[in-house]
Amino acid sequence: MRYKLLGTSGLRVSELCLGTMTFGENWGWGATRAESRKIYEAFVEAGGNFLDTANIYTEGESEKLLGEFIATDRERIVLATKYACYTGQDNPNGAGNHRKSMVQALEASLKRLKTDYIDLYYVHAWDFLSPVEEVMRALDDLVRAGKVLYLGISSVPAWVVAQANTLVERYGWSPFVALSIQYNLVERTPERELLPMAQSFGVSVTAWSPLAYGLLSGKYTREESKQAAGKVGRLASNQFRFNGRAERDLTIAHTVQQVADEISCTPPQVALAWLRAQSQGIIPIISGTNASQLRDNLGCLDVRLSPEHLQRLDTVSRIPQDHPVDFLADEGTRQLVYGGIFNSIDTNRHAQLLNAIQKAEAK
């Protein structure tokens, strides 16, 4: 296990993050306390120090279990949790991004986790109601009070992070150093705005659901092809997970399986290796309902995909760019904007445009 600096901070976090949404059985499908401990211990034994939870995971049970597990190793662990989502309280201010929701959620998390501080505190989802000035000032107050060390945000438009981090630079407040988003071979839309924004601001990306809710785990591609049609139908009916794109998504899953077979590893390892190859700033959040699944995910650290395999995976999962990037990538537009010398300018500032050009030329 190697380590990365989190965003623009000096905080060292493991190159994989352990997601603990599966810790606890309150949702009817998670890991038992004993199995959760085995998962935690397997991750720590592999060198992992970066843990992710949230106040709503398994109705608070995830935080309680983590508090128990990290008690003797708190200084080594980089602990991330989140606030903003509804926890079932009969309270109009029991959710949202605003200061009251933030403070009461943090105090409750600290009690469940049995700790005095949170290493990385995420805004779990943007509510479009709370002023960004209120949110960032309130978060900075928590940092100054020593209850939170670093700040992150999840499930948010790119412009919100850009606005927030520009604002805090002006006032000397604490910035977001981490962005948590769904990113995988099936869901590549963050490449349009979120990833370029994160790169521009030096924000690390923690990628949740790197196996696309299990679609890339191999369980949809192990059976005989005659059963595939039935699986397509079931996937198509699952609008929450796959948004009606079942045939495309299953094709991606089959390609992942083929690559895994060719290099003698597992589909999750291929999917995670592809994700890690996209950028040094991306940290996959791995998880599982048992220690065996977790150890299999950890095996991605030993997988290096060849350029040919990366190209195959990119081709089958590629998405179109949106306006105006597709317009700006057009050769005619580049002639106008750069006066015909685009290819003679040496800079890394137009990385997003270069990526769009490469994708357009590959079609």
TrEMBL record:
Record's keyword annotation contains Disulfide bond: no
GO molecular function (one): oxidoreductase activity
Domain NADP-dependent oxidoreductase intervals: 15-316
Keyword set, alphabetical order: Oxidoreductase
Cited InterPro entries: AKR_Detox_Biosynth, NAD(P)_OxRdtase_dom_sf, NADP_OxRdtase_dom
Any one annotated GO CC term: cytosol
One of the Pfam families matching this protein, by short name: Aldo_ket_red
Segment forming the signal sequence: none
Protein name as annotated: Aldo/keto reductase
Source species of the chain: Ktedonosporobacter rubrisoli
Lineage: Bacteria, Bacillati, Chloroflexota, Ktedonobacteria, Ktedonobacterales
